[in-house]
Specification:
This protein is α/β, with parallel strands linked by helices. Helices cover about 50% and strands about 10% of the residues. The protein folds into 2 domains: about 1-115, no CATH class; about 125-215, no CATH class. A hairpin with a 2-residue loop joins strand 1 and strand 2. It binds zinc ion.
């Protein structure tokens, strides 16, 4: 069945109707607006389709990917679709709790905007910004020099360090931070070397990324 709540269309089974009735779609709309503002996005995305998934087979059908890593519980698809394991099954087949569904949808909305914003395809920032919208405080610490601003080799690095960088920037620059991040990602490209990217970062943010993280307490002592 299909339920419509504002800009959100949810595909689900009867068993999850109660969950959907108690879900805070007003809060989700507020998050949507925050994310839209972060990306300086002018237009609305139109309807956002939340597709509840009920089995690994459905996951394969809707995402085109085999479900073989139980820490994955959601994935964006074409035309504003967020595929996510349903509340009635998420705890049985993934490592995620039912309570995490709200934050996961917020995370995926960030990925939708990233995709539409024509930004450099850097997993570190794509995941870091998504994590920031889930939680704008970051307790991660790092004890090494950053090898990459692109990311994409190690998902733990992308989520952890990406989150730390985005939170440090937002804490340091306030709302200007989002504008600077988007500017950085618009002027970057995957063809650039890491060295060129670190230099571009310094030019736009007027600070070394390492020093910024140290200033914000993200360096392990
Ligand atoms: Zn993600």
């Amino acid at each position: 069945m299909i339920t419509k709540k504002g800009r959100f269309l949810i595909r689900h089974k009867e068993i999850d109707s109660k969950y959907i009735e108690s879900f805070d779609f007003d809060k989700l709309e507020d998050k949507y607006q925050d994310i839209k503002k972060f990306y300086s996005f002018e237009k609305d995305l139109g309807l956002i389709r939340i597709c509840f998934i009920y089995s690994p087979e459905e996951f394969l059908f809707f995402t085109g990917r085999e479900f073989n890593q139980n820490w994955i519980c959601a994935m964006v698809g074409y035309h504003n679709t967020i595929n996510i394991f349903s509340p009635s099954i998420i705890e049985k087949i993934t490592t995620h709790k039912k309570e995490s569904i709200f934050n996961t949808i917020v995370h995926e909305i960030s990925h939708l905007f990233y995709g539409y914003s024509m930004l450099a395809d850097f997993p570190l920032f794509n995941e870091g910004i998504a994590k920031y919208h889930e939680n704008n405080k970051c307790n991660n610490k790092i004890n090494f020099n950053l090898p990459s601003l692109k990311g994409g080799k190690d998902s733990i690095y992308d989520y952890g360090v990406g989150h730390l960088i985005v939170c440090s920037i937002m804490e340091h620059f306030g709302n200007e931070g989002a504008k600077k991040i988007i500017k950085f990602l618009k002027e970057s490209s995957t063809e650039m070397s890491e060295e060129e990217l670190f230099n571009l970062f310094k030019k736009i943010f007027e600070i070394d990324v390492d020093l910024l993280i140290e200033l914000k307490g993200g360096k392990e002592k």
